[in-house]
Amino acid sequence: MVWFVSQEGLNRFNGHELENYRFSSNDPNSIPASVITQIVEDVDGTLWLSTLGGGLAFYNAISNDFDAIYADPSDKNTPQSNDIQTVFCDKDGILWLGYANGFSSFNPRNRSFHHYVSGSNGVPFTGDVKDFTQTLDGAIWVATESHGMLRLEPSTGKIDSITHIAENSDSIVTGRLYRLITDMNGNIWISSDNGGVSRYNPTANVATNFTHSELDRSSISSNQTSDIFEDKNGDIWIATSEGLNLFVPETNSFIHYNSQNTDIPNDAITSINQTREGEYWVGTRSGLTSGMRTNFQKFNQATSNLSNESVNAFAETADGTLWVGTDDGLNKLRPRSASFEWINGSTQPAISSPIVMSLYSDEDTLWIGTYNGGLNKLDVKRNEVSVYKHNPLDKISIGANGITSILRLSTGQLLIGTYGGGLSIYSESDGHFLNLKSDRKDQSTISNDMVLALYEDSIGFVWVGTENGLNRFHPDTNKFERYYTARGIPNSLSSNVVWSFFEDADHNLWIGTLGGGLNRWPLQDRQESKPNFIHYSDNISLPSLNIYGIHGDSSGRLWVSHSKGITSIDPLTLVSYQYGIKDGLQSTEFNLGASYKSKSGMMFFGGIRGFNAINPDLVSSDRIPPQVAISQIKVMNERREFDAPYHALESIELSYQDRMLSVEFFAADYSNPELVNYAYKLEGINPDWVVSPDARIASFTTLPSGTYNLKLAAATPDGTWNWDALSIPVVVAPPPWLSPIAYAAYTALAGALIGLYFYRQAELTRISLQRQRDLERRVEERTRDLDEARKIAVKATKAKSEFLATMSHEIRTPMHGIIGMTELLLHTQLNGQQQQFARAARKSGESLLNLINEILDFSKVEASKVELEHIGFNLTELIDDICYLQGEPAGRKGLQLNNICHPYTPSILMGDPTKIRQVVMNLVSNSIKFT
Question: Pairing state of beta strands 628-635 and 660-667?
Answer without folding.
Answer: antiparallel
